[in-house]
Amino acid sequence: MEKTLKPMSGYLTLVICLALFVAAVYFFVSGVDQSIAYVVIAMLCFLVSCFFLKGLMIIQPNHSRVLNFFGKYVGSVKENGLFFINPLYSSQKISLRSENLQGQTLKVNDKMGNPIEIAVVIVWKVGDTYKAAFDVERYSDFVKMQSEAAVRHLAMSFPYDNLEDDHAPITLREGGDKINSILEQELTDRLSKAGIVIQEARISHLAYASEIAGAMLQRQQATAIVAARTKIVEGAVGMVDLALKKLSEENIVELDDERKAAMVSNLMVVLCGEKAATPILNAGTLYN
């Protein structure tokens, strides 16, 4: 479990170290001409100065140090500045800054078994320095591997779109913020053991794999054409019905069943045809 420490300021220790170093130089120079005892004192002052200097550490903003004492965890320092700690402590630097992970494009199968390409962008940082330092080996590599596993699991849990699964509540292509939220939760569950905090996770690339991209594009185009034709036919039927009702209500012309059928046929051709209809003048009647 992480334990936060607040060590003493290191400025006083720095002044003492400088004073001891100056004293070491003075006694060494004086001992050369006077007495060997001065040389011994100079060496002691120098060694003590070096020992104290080892206890000084500078922590930059958004950085931390994890302290150990002969293999035992002492605590973590997250404040920035110059500090003095026990010179016998060993320390490990851990950055607390946010980092971007641009995942590589992965080829996986979606829930329906279709091969797709997917990639994500993840923003993460270290939240628990104890877990990052001691619970996993090289936490940055752990983030990369577990992120890839989370993306693969996400892709296999949902269909790419609802062409094959009309009842799918969420798809990768149209899920939007919901899919991103599920991805963030998946990453949080996997990376919490390393003390990693997920700040944001977004899908940056999503497409069918190259071997089926052409077929899927044709399928999507066919689906769109069918849907468009359905709308056109529905609209055309409504317009024909309205035209017949208006002609009947206003007594513009009386049509028997055969003439109505001919009129409906002509109107449907005009309204549903892809090209403009070519008018044909009929000088006779339907019966001659």
Q: Any overview of this molecule?
A:
- The chain has helices spanning 11-33, 36-54, 129-135, 139-157, 177-191, 210-249, 257-272; strands spanning 8-9, 56-59, 63-69, 72-77, 81-84, 90-95, 99-102, 106-109, 115-126, 196-208.
- The protein is of the alpha+beta class and 288 residues long.
- It has 3 domains: 10-92, no CATH class; 98-210, Tetrahydropterin Synthase, Chain A (2-Layer Sandwich), CATH 3.30.479.30; 213-272, no CATH class.
- Strands 7, 8, 9 and 10 form a 4-stranded antiparallel beta sheet that branches. Strands 1-5-2 form a 3-stranded antiparallel beta sheet. The chain has a 3-stranded antiparallel beta sheet with strand order 4-3-6, covered by helices on one side.
The name of the CATH superfamily of the largest domain reads Band 7 domain
Strands, count: 10
Cα(first) to Cα(last) distance is 99 Å
- Sheet having the most strands: 4 strands, antiparallel
Helix content: 40-55%
Name of the CATH first level of the largest domain: Alpha Beta
CA radius of gyration is 39 Å
Average pLDDT across residues?
Answer: 82
What is the subunit organization of this protein?
A: single chain
Number of domains: 3
Q: Provide the CATH architecture of the largest domain.
A: 2-Layer Sandwich
